[in-house]
Amino acid sequence: MKVKPAQVKGHAKSQKWKDVRGKRSRPPISSSELNSSPVIARMAKEHQASVKKQPTVKRLKSKAKPVSDSKKNTHQPAFKKSPTQANGSSAFTMDNGSNDSVDWKEYSQSINGNGLETSGDKQDVSPSRLEGEALHYCAERDDRQNHAVLVMEKDQTLCFRGKCFLTCLYGRVEVMGFTIEEGQQSYPLFSPASHCPLTIRAQESSDHSRDDRSEAAPILRKYLSAASRKKLLKWITSNSSIILLEPMETPLTRFLSSFTDRSELFSPPVSELMSAVLDTPLNGLGVIPLARGVDGLKMSSTYRDALNVVVSACRGDMDGCAVILVCGTKNVGKSTFIRSLINTLLNHTTSVDYLEGDLGQTEFTPAGCLSLSTVREPLLGPPFTHQCTPEHMIYYGHSSCEADLERYLESLKSLWRRRSPSRETPVIINTMGWVKGFGFQVLVDMIRFFPVSHVVQLGHSGITQCPALTPEFLRTAHGCQTHPPAQTALDELTENHSPPRSYTHLIVQSEFQGVGRQGTAKHQRTNEHRELSLLAYLSQLQSPDPGPIRSLNSLTPYQVPHTAVSLGVIHCEVVPNHMFYAANASLVGLCCLGEKVTSRGGPVLLSQAPICPCVGFGVLRGIDMARGLYFLLTPVDPTILRKVNCLLLGAISLPSCILTSQPGFEGEMPYVTTDYSFDLTGAGKLRVFKGLMRPSQMGMQ
């Protein structure tokens, strides 16, 4: 039997991690180009989105002030969008021939005030959305340097689709719970159609004694021409914030846009087209503002209260570190809540530990992984925009744990043991959306296994979709591995952490549109999210320099002897004679077994799924039986690859676009065939469930 590699060239090259923060500029896009795109051509479809007021979050200051409720006072903005205008422009007109035709000072104050008393009144108000004509007043673009400067007053917001680098030049702004101040680095913002749009919100300056214009003038001089600088400078007040927006092009964005079905990922979806503002100074930079018919992150009162309680606890004098477990049913906003919580905590601490327990919707890795990460940078985009290598990772190999509950729980315990007991960094534990039957029992086990200080349980429609996981309920609840009386199953896990005998139970009711239902629009389904994360990981194989995207067949692989590594299939049972057929052209986890791999001259095959560290992933591009070699593509550094002695094949498959989009071939593409029938007996895989018992058998242990 011989499985030939396709188009294997040369020997292994040294591969290195790519820095996705590298800035790449591109020519500005005109309004006519935007209007001629396929996205805008679909604007004839009727827009059904209802007009809602934009909620707001007042950032947590150094004293951990509570998150404000924007619904306490709802005021009408000083100007309204004309009902006949579809692009979000404001209703009033200007005489472009006169610089004094509009008293911009009154306009700015009306936008900033929005019903707010400026004499020290701190009541919460609905923020003003920057859209339409307002963006022509407060934004200026420098075509030569290909960037834009935007002046925002306190509580003004910019909700947008697209991607860009944001630098705060003056004042402070907040994005997804994270405060960005002047003097800090540039941060990449990602607002794709697959997730809720991002919102930039201006905050009140911490220094009210500043001479705003004299300090802002030299800042603007670096980025704008004299005419543009003069236009913006006279409207700057002590409550103003100035941000710099720059276009962003990275190996990730270039790689994703090379696939036809994802070329419009950072454009507004069909439901938002009528709210997209296309004629502003920001559009050519890859930023498309949205009118107030589209909501950004919507926080309920219980959402804000839970954030306040957790952040205050992390900043207080707790006995040990805070361990926050977040749980809830599918599509209820757990991941978004966790990103907001991490970003808010990063305003007060240098890092946050994150234990990944959701196999299907992972945050930092491709799907099918359990991991322990230390987060030091804010998460200003969905998971596929911040893929990285965790400190510790185990490849489970499936998007659900139902096939082998024991291996899932043992893997989580193994990760927790690797965390230093002396660490005082807050820990956030993410869980699956499986909250019924055995999934609920797994949640019970996790609360008992780890020294949990807070359980945040998300629900919707006034209920939690499963019993409330209060300390009282846990005293009588049955888990998969634990049973009443509730005691920690792993004494070694908690003896050094001094876990509290009880914990704080918080219920969050999500109120965003479509809560509890999987998205049906393009890019919004969970399987598409998993594919995006995997594509983002594989984008690290591309060159950091601008240029054409290289397909799998054009990349030089590593050559790995069969005798140097073992090969195992962890999601199903495969007979040894078919192992190579199953693994060829597949994604494999690069793992490190504790024992040395010994071979008798042939391939080493595993009969059981091990629980061992995983350092990354690779594509098994080909297998040469004659020479006894695996041909492997991976972005993992060669110094780390030397430790790898195990390749694990799981149920996480390569996106079909990786295999079908291979330019340069005539005839049949490598790895792609139509000569296969799923109607044959045994053509599909057999699902095996391990460790599942009927409820009636639970008391027999």
What report would you give on this structure?
This protein starts with 30 loop residues before the first helix and ends in a 41-residue tail after the last helix. With 701 residues, the protein is α+β, with helices and mostly antiparallel strands. The chain has helices spanning 31-35, 38-41, 104-113, 133-138, 212-221, 226-233, 251-257, 301-315, 334-345, 405-417, 438-449, 471-474, 491-494, 526-538, 579-583, 638-641, 656-660; strands at residues 139-142, 147-152, 157-170, 172-175, 178-181, 187-191, 198-202, 241-246, 287-289, 323-328, 352-356, 369-375, 392-395, 427-430, 454-460, 504-510, 558-561, 566-569, 586-591, 604-605, 614-624, 629-633, 646-649. Helices cover 20% and strands 18% of the residues. Residues 1-66, 68-126 and 495-500 have low confidence and may be disordered. Helix 8 (301-315) runs parallel beside helix 9 (334-345). Strands 1, 2, 3, 4, 5, 6, 7, 8 and 9 form a 9-stranded antiparallel sheet that branches. A 7-stranded mixed sheet has the order 13-12-11-14-10-15-16, sandwiched between helices. Among the domains are: 132-289, Jelly Rolls, CATH 2.60.120.1030; 301-484 and 501-510, Rossmann fold, CATH 3.40.50; 541-658, Elongation Factor Tu (Ef-tu), domain 3 (Beta Barrel).
Topology:
Layout: H1 31-35, H2 38-41, H3 104-113, H4 133-138, E1 139-142, E2 147-152, E3 157-170, E4 172-175, E5 178-181, E6 187-191, E7 198-202, H5 212-221, H6 226-233, E8 241-246, H7 251-257, E9 287-289, H8 301-315, E10 323-328, H9 334-345, E11 352-356, E12 369-375, E13 392-395, H10 405-417, E14 427-430, H11 438-449, E15 454-460, H12 471-474, H13 491-494, E16 504-510, H14 526-538, E17 558-561, E18 566-569, H15 579-583, E19 586-591, E20 604-605, E21 614-624, E22 629-633, H16 638-641, E23 646-649, H17 656-660
Parallel strand pairs: 10-14, 10-15, 11-14, 15-16, 18-20, 18-23
Antiparallel strand pairs: 1-2, 2-8, 3-6, 3-7, 3-8, 3-9, 4-5, 4-7, 11-12, 12-13, 17-22, 19-21, 19-23, 21-22
